[in-house]
Design brief:
The chain has three helices and 16 strands. With 275 residues, the protein is of the alpha+beta class. The protein folds into two domains: 52 residues; 222 residues, Jelly Rolls (Sandwich).
């Protein structure tokens, strides 16, 4: 292959790399307690947004969004009401979607020695101040129900919405994570609940969803379901879309391909004229 073609091939390879996931640089408004943490070795190499259960924001805010932390059981009788919960929320800046898939990665965490029976860490996709998709609603130790009743109707956290693909893994924290006034992790207490070998102190969630074209917000939250402020926090690790090619990128790819075709045709013409 002639060396003049290498720059064209390099251009195409470079542009093809744009199809990988693109991390969205979203900003967030905190309602309650939260903010931006500096990188924490062993957890995140970059700064990240977080919110925790100490914020005192009533669960009635979630009701207004059309979200039940724990949906009622058979007959519509709830074991629990949103209005009895408190916590904190992160509201993202506007997210404009054009038919791409959206992947959200976040972690819910608590501290050792405390029973994670009543905490919920969640991610929602909101449009016009109403939830259009539950991306995840989990306890920090991976349990999917409140209290110690066991999984029974009226105590279960809601499943992700139809069309949402979610993976979640409960993992030990290799290091304590200081957020606000609390150190989250397995080593902060010798108690018997969230502790290495008994229950893990963190769940990591990855949810993917393809919404209809439009403008949206992401809402992340950490709530204590009975309002006694047992520590739990949600940490936003990444929000990505497969870039797949903007109009400019597609134009550049097309130009590179055309240039390569012209070079190939010219080489063939020169070779035929010499034969």
């Amino acid at each position: 292959m002639h060396r003049s073609m290498f720059p064209l091939l390099a251009t195409i390879v470079l542009l093809a790399g744009f199809a990988s996931a693109d991390s969205l640089s979203l900003s967030y408004t905190v309602s309650g307690t939260g903010g931006v943490s500096q990188p924490v070795s062993g957890f995140s190499n970059t700064s990240f947004w977080w919110a925790d259960t100490s914020g005192g924001v009533s669960g009635s805010v979630l009701t207004a969004l059309g979200f039940d932390l724990v949906p009622p059981g058979p007959g519509g009788t709830p074991y629990y009401f949103n209005s009895g919960s408190t916590g904190s929320l992160l509201f993202s800046s506007v997210l404009t979607m054009s038919g791409e898939s959206l992947t959200v990665d976040f972690a819910g965490m608590t501290v050792a020695g405390l029973p994670p029976l009543n905490q919920a860490d969640f991610a929602l996709l909101v449009q016009n101040s109403q939830v259009v998709a539950i991306l995840a609603d989990v306890a920090p130790n991976g349990v999917n129900h409140i209290y110690d009743f066991g999984p029974m109707p009226g105590t279960l956290y809601p499943n992700p919405s139809p069309g949402v693909t979610t993976t979640a893994s409960s993992t030990p924290l290799s290091t304590d994570i200081p957020l606000g006034d609390t150190d989250y992790g397995n080593s902060s207490s010798s108690g018997g609940y969230c502790k290495v070998g008994i229950q893990n102190c963190m769940i990591q969630v990855s949810s993917t969803y393809t919404p209809a074209p439009g403008q949206y917000q992401l809402v992340f939250g950490a709530y204590d379901l009975v309002g006694n402020n047992l520590p739990s926090a949600v940490a936003v690790e990444s929000v990505t879309v497969p870039e797949g090619g903007s109009s400019l990128e597609m134009i550049l790819v097309a130009m590179a391909m055309c240039s390569m075709a012209i070079v190939i045709r010219r080489r063939k013409a020169v070779a035929q004229s010499k034969s």
